[in-house]
Design a protein that fits this description.
The protein is an alpha/beta fold. It has six helices and seven strands; from the N terminus they run E-H-E-E-H-E-H-E-E-H-E-H-H. 44% of the residues lie in helices and 19% in strands. The chain is globular and about 50 Å long. Bound molecules: flavin mononucleotide.
């Protein structure tokens, strides 16, 4: 299969997840194109599966990811596609924070007119050694709210790599069972949306 992975990242964890997924697919002999939404990501046309990832900062995902989704929503909705969200909230067991996370994600996907077949919530990382004063302050508040022990000020990765292995397997399964469809040109959709 021909798989496209697009990601938005601020401190690098979402790219680490994209790299991991890419290696998983390549190990199964699939071809992978990996691209940062901040650069010039390719159109999703012609790929068998498209995975898009973004991370949460101050309750928002990266704007270039939203622009990409909006521009290509017609093709994304006609392809096996999945979204992964990276956040600290996903590492917590606080139900109210999880509800916020789900609402923000739903609003983001609706704003992009995209209905991915799968949405995966990925626990991110604390990188105190890389944060400036402002980010350290913000992260202490967020980590406290999300019940994480941020008092130590140490770096910590919460990402569950075995859950991501399962996520990659589900994508392959979905793409393999997807009916072959004739994909209209994106411009055909733009006219009606
Ligand atoms: C300034 C800042 C703001 C953040 N805001 C949120 C937030 O609102 N909700 C949340 O769950 N996580 C938040 N996080 C945690 C990030 O989502 C987490 O560190 C993630 O691993 C970052 O992914 P990235 O390295 O790909 O950017 C924030 C992190 C920073 C540094």
């Amino acid at each position: 299969m021909n798989i496209l992975i697009i990601y938005g990242t601020t401190e690098g964890q979402t790219r680490r997840v994209a790299d991991f997924l890419s290696k998983e697919f390549q190990n199964l002999n699939h071809a992978v194109t990996l691209s940062d939404a901040n650069g010039t990501p390719p159109s999703p046309s012609g790929f068998d599966a498209v995975i898009i990832g973004a991370s949460m900062h101050m309750e928002r995902y990266q704007e270039p990811v939203l622009y990409y989704i909006r521009e290509h929503h017609a093709t994304l909705n006609a392809t096996t596609s999945a979204f992964y969200s990276v956040s600290l909230t996903a590492a917590s067991d606080d139900e109210a924070s999880w509800q916020d996370l789900r609402h923000i994600t739903e609003r983001f996907l609706i704003a992009g007119h995209w209905r991915p077949a799968l949405v995966e919530y990925v626990a991110g990382a604390l990188r105190f050694t890389k944060y400036d004063f402002f980010k350290k302050f913000i992260m202490r508040q967020i980590a406290k709210r999300a019940s994480q022990s941020a008092a130590t000020g140490e770096d910590k990765e919460y990402t569950d790599w075995s859950a991501l292995k399962l996520f990659s397997a589900k994508i392959i399964q979905l793409a393999a069972s997807a009916p072959v469809t004739v994909r209209p040109e994106e411009s055909d959709f733009e006219a009606v949306c």
